[in-house]
Amino acid sequence: MNNLQLTNSLTRKKEIFKPNNLEKISLYACGPTVYDNPHVGNARTLVVFDVLYRVLNALFNSNVTYVRNITDVDDKIIEASQNNKKDINEITNEVIKIFHENCKSLNCLKPTVEPKATEHIKEMIEMTSSLIKKGFAYENKGHVYFAVSSFKDYGKLSNKNLDELKVGSRVEISDLKKNPMDFVLWKPSKEKDPGWESPWGRGRPGWHLECSAMSEKYLGKNLDIHGGGLDLIFPHHENEIAQSCCNNNTKKFANYWVHNGFVTINKEKMSKSLGNIITISDAVKKYSGQAVRLALLSAHYSQPLDWNDELLKNQENVINKWYNLYSPEKNNVSEVDEILLDDLNTPGYIAKIHQLYNDASKGNAEKKIKFNQACKLIGLFSISKKDWESSKKSKISVSESYITKKIEERIEAKNKGDFLLADKIRDELLSKGILIEDQKEKTIWKVK
Ligand code: AMP
Ligand code: ZN
After folding, report:
1. What's the whole-number average pLDDT of the chain?
2. CATH for 5-260?
3. Ligand 1 atom closest to 33 (CA)
């Protein structure tokens, strides 16, 4: 029944997914650092892992624990607070609120647990103490570093040895480290910065430590799947592996590592530092959340995805068309199509949905059920047809009274034989996204 295959970044091969325990499948995806509004690059990670979560739920009878953390203590947050002269909590609360609204617009299911780093400091201090005790970490002037030379598998996920990693990465230079590649587990905080009492003085955890501590708390020492964007492989995931395997004396931290490719704009990675981001909030103002979601699934998760208006307009038209065959029944999926099982081949699956639509539109009732199931499996058809129609209305820039007035003017023009003017009015409405249709007795309008 389960032939799910995933490309495992650890082996760089497509592998059949074999869970540790059929009763509790574990999935961890690194969540946002809440210092600024999430962008559509971040949305890709959200949507890809949401589809994986839905597929796992369908395959394993909903016995899936999905953990997606929130990084709410980090240097970037401190910096944002200084730059914007805003309190840290104000920033993190605001961004978390927007993030949750964005998840809802994209129709992402809530994860089973959404742990915040600041609520797990105790676990992080314990893990740091334990790593020092076991000889994998050392303290120097309130800083605690992980000694990468103590872990022989360091670099296995990135497929690089220490020397290669050194060349390719920007490592934080510090005289306090024994080796430039050593990374921080704990660091001191200035009085005004967030900090917690610890055996090494008042300080805060390093980002990598946060995920190791939180994933262990909710999913144990050996998880099935761990994921995130491609940029997290090094150093973040490499460091998570080092911390967790050394602390737990295990060979494997996660059995399958899944990484999604970047959203790009003109072939360049979408990122804050390049200044080319489109926030999720802006994207779903301009297009429907479902069109954004479909666009994010239109390329295979491992490949880059170039973001542009044409792509989005196309997806909007597709969703609009598909709503013609929407059916409201809650039809749970018991079988997952083999196209999707093949390494979450969403572009292939979307092509299949198009085919099902064409078959169903010829009046085949069974195909219509299948079509609706397929859409829902990848998180589409999140709202009823009625709500879809009214959400489209709310997106148009003109009021209903304006449209009615224009339609009356057009009727008058036609009555006078001024067909040029009548056509002009029709085209003007069309350019605003309003389609008018002359029926026997009246003229109706709809959103294109
Ligand atoms: P951050 O908030 O920067 O820690 O990122 C949250 C998640 O979004 C991580 O899994 C990143 O790898 C991912 N991510 C960031 N930028 C992009 C992008 N342009 N395309 C795809 N994923 C991205
Ligand atoms: Zn992480």
Report:
1. 95
2. 3.40.50.620
3. 2
Domain boundaries, the chain: 5-260, 264-391, 396-447
Nearest CA to ligand 1 atom 18: 41
Element (H, E) at 427: helix 419-431
Other beta carbons within 10 angstroms of residue 13's beta carbon come to 10
Architecture of domain 264-391: Orthogonal Bundle (1.10)
> pTM higher than 0.90, yes or no?
yes
User: Which residue among 9, 34, 42 is best mutated to probe the pocket of ligand 1, counting the most ligand atoms within 8 A of its Cβ?
Assistant: 42
Report, in this order, helix, strand and coil percent for the chain, each rounded to 5: 50, 15, 35
Residues with CB under 6 Å of ligand 1 are 30, 32-33, 41-42, 44-45, 228-229, 231-232, 260, 262-263, 269-271
Identify whether the C-beta of residue 186 lies closer than 8 Å to the C-beta of residue 117: no
Q: What is the pLDDT of residues 363-377, one digit of tens each?
A: 999 999 999 999 999
Q: Ligand 1, atom 17: nearest CA belongs to which residue? A: 41
